[in-house]
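User: Here's a chain of 73 residues. Predict its fold as tokens.
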Amino acid sequence: MGCLWGFPMWGGWWIFPMIALIFMVFMFLACSRFFRGRGGFCSMRRYYADTEDLRREIGEIKEEIIKLKKSGG
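Assistant: Prediction complete.
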């Protein structure tokens, strides 16, 4: 009896679909967590407060620059 896909079906042929399935599940979980706002697997949520502080400080610095330009020159 011949092979259906051009290669014999002995050995560990099942490992490739299993690897692909695991990869697909991992990517599905990562994408779903990212789009729900949890930051994916790298947990970027902890840096959110830091970026908000930096944005606030940048706004304050811009205001100070505008005041300095108006007052001195």
